[in-house]
Amino acid sequence: MRLVASMVVATALFGSAHADGDSLVDLLGPREIAVGEALRGGATGASAIGLNPSGLPLNQELVFEGGYGYRPSDQASLLNVSACDSTSTIPGCFYYDYAGSSPDINGVGMHRSTHIAGSSVAYPITPRVSLGSSVKYLHYSTDIMGETSTSGFNFDLGATVRINELASIGLAGYNLWGTDSPQWTRAAGGGLLVRPIQMLALSFDARWRLIDGDHSARYGGGAELFLSSNNGQQGYPIRIGALHDSGLGTTYLSGGLGFAGMKFSLDLAARKAVSGPSETMFIASMRVYGPRLGAGSSDAQ
Question: What are the residues facing 117 on neighbouring strands?
């Protein structure tokens, strides 16, 4: 999760808040962005908030996370803070996210913003199967003609199955019940994460919108190579990924670097559109750890 005090360290540029206030991507951080948004099969900590809340039991740690970013094309910024505790019997998170942009439309500066606050909880059914849910309050404001400001509550659900120590599958539904808004569209997603060797994670995901007239999808995949040092007390994740959005007709390439220690971690990521509308995005975050009782299949992430 994302701690306010750590934001001053995360001075890199952003990328996960879309100018259209799409709450389906506003909650994503540098680890998810770097691997093509493909972590639904192994989402832990703050990654579970936006992708799959049922992934929280995959590791056991108390972690605070803070992130900040910026996209110059429409002056879009993202600010997020969270706190996740997966050491308890019922793992959970609290979080707040802000996404805002000031696009120039026909020479006139406009503004739109999204505030999202909520909590995610996971329910371990067996050592290998868990369910999860999120409740969130969303407020969207805009002064752009043709758009409507709105606010209300919505809910997500997810499930994660650890096939074995090397592979896990995740499924999630987003904005399933609550306020009906173009910014909070109903959607479903799923993904697979595999570890052919301990230091390498490969992930593949897809997400579909479930609204009338729009069944567009985002397909992504990525890899993380985790290089450890100092007798495993610290490590350096290297991430790459690709993502295609059929609705936008855009393909992105992404990558990221990080430092992971026993007390804190830093993550940086960038994503660039290689087809479709031109777009470059950057994001950074810092994690501060409390007690860490063990490592699950996604500990490097």
Answer: 96, 137
